[in-house]
Amino acid sequence: MPKTWIPPDCNSVKINVDGALKGSELATGVVIRDFSGNVKACQIVYDGKWKGFDGAIEAEARAFLKGIELARDLQFQSIIIEGDSQLMVKYLTEATNSYPWRLRSLIVDCKSHLATFLNFSVRFTPRSVNTVLTFLQRKQ
Questions:
Q1: In what side-by-side order are the strands of the sheet with 39-49?
Q2: How many CB atoms are located within 10 Å of the residue 76 CB?
Q3: Residues 18-55 pLDDT 10s
Q4: Is the predicted pLDDT of residue 63 greater than 70, yes or no?
């Protein structure tokens, strides 16, 4: 397991995403970097109040969707998207429809957007390497 951020190859961008839930406040963060580590885009979204169960996994699902949408909007063709939720990586990489109903639309949207890229990879990265929200909070 890597202990530091590993850059993508020169034909791809790497998207690191993270979702967080503090109390009932939900936030997502996205950083897109090239092979040199240069930030191509970044975004932090405060999604407001959360009510219900599974808030942490929904925050992670929203973060993946925001990252994929941002890369699509910027017309990147080859992406590697990483997050620190093993469960979300499993949902996005396995051919299954077995996930919580509350996440269904987010996961379906992620998968359909991913299919529009020429190349994509979805990977798990440890929390110690995936410091997206910390990075973005320093940029504000």
A1: 39-49, 25-33, 13-22, 78-83, 119-124
A2: 19
A3: 998 877 788 889 999 999 999 999 998 887 766 666 77
A4: yes
In this prediction the pTM is 0.89
Residues 111 and 92 sit within 8 Å (Cβ to Cβ): yes
Domain range for 17: 13-138
Domain total of the chain = 1
CA–CA separation, 111 and 66 (whole Å): 13
Question: By C-alpha distance, which of 31, 41, 40, 27 is closest to 5?
Answer: 31
Burial (CB < 10 A; 0-12, 13-18, 19+), residue 51, is: exposed
Residues forming a β-bridge with 31: 16, 42
Asked whether 64 and 92 are in contact (CB, 8 A), the reply is: yes
Sign, CA dihedral 71-72-73-74, equals positive
Collapse the DSSP code of 117 into the 3-class scheme (helix H, G, I; strand E, B; otherwise coil) and give the result.
coil
Q: The domain spanning residue 25 has which CATH number? A: 3.30.420.10
Alpha-helical runs (H) found in 43-94: 55-73, 86-93
